[in-house]
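Reopening this ticket.

The earlier resolution said the output was attached, but the attachment link was broken on my side. Pasting everything inline this time so it's all in one place.
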Amino acid sequence: MVEEKGRLLYVLTLFLVLLASISSLGGLFMEGLYRDNDLVVSAWQGNDIVTLCVVVPMMLIAMYYAAHNSRKASLFWMGSLWYMVYNYMFYMFGATFNYFFLLYVALFTLSTYTLILALIRTSPQELSQYFNRRMPVKWISGYMLFFAILLGGMWIVLSLSFIITGQVHQSILQTDHPTAIVFAVDLSLLIPSLILSGVMLWRRKPWGFVLSSIVLIKAAAYGLALIIMTVVSYYKTDIIDPFILLWILLTSGCIVSLGVLLRNMKKDVQV
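Inline output:
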């Protein structure tokens, strides 16, 4: 049976799935919706493919099993919510103003507050008991800190280079966007979440197990989106993302780390 106190979260998630599907389908099939340059449009569409074909189904399946008391599914559910928060911040601030602007705002806001509510009703002490205490948490958290230092350090160096040379990096110029939206979102959301959850996991804190799972699920899914974006962009514009090998490396590391983490979690599906 679905818990009464969780019913609101499931309704909000279903509404979020509906809005995300509309956004992705519109991005893929509405001619002229995106008003950015060809490179950015192809990136949006690659992102739409992953959101529609991977994240939306994952969110629905995870929500179903989470409603039937699967702890592992609840982590995937919250991980997909974190993906939505991160993803639609890019659309809200990075896409040239279009017909779906209010939809992007709704998606970002709804996913943010749904995730907050989901975390509030989570018991980290209870959930952390499902993880094997002998698993190599320092290897996992060490990778997460490596990820944060590598990517965060790269964005910081590229930002500081402007102060020294006065030259805006090519990765910003080719988007025709006046701000470094990727640098901003990663340095304010992705990097801190990797560091916080990684340190807490290293110290075997209850929240460390929960947050690391959520962050790695999101990072693996969005890493896949970056790879698909690169493929679509190359197909449509002949421009290859110079960071593609880095995305493959980091995504692979996230998948392996997540696999080790969840393999050391007890099965608990109750349908």
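Reporter confirms the inline version is readable. Residues 42 and 236 are 7 Å apart (CA to CA). Residues 206-237 form the longest helix (32 residues).
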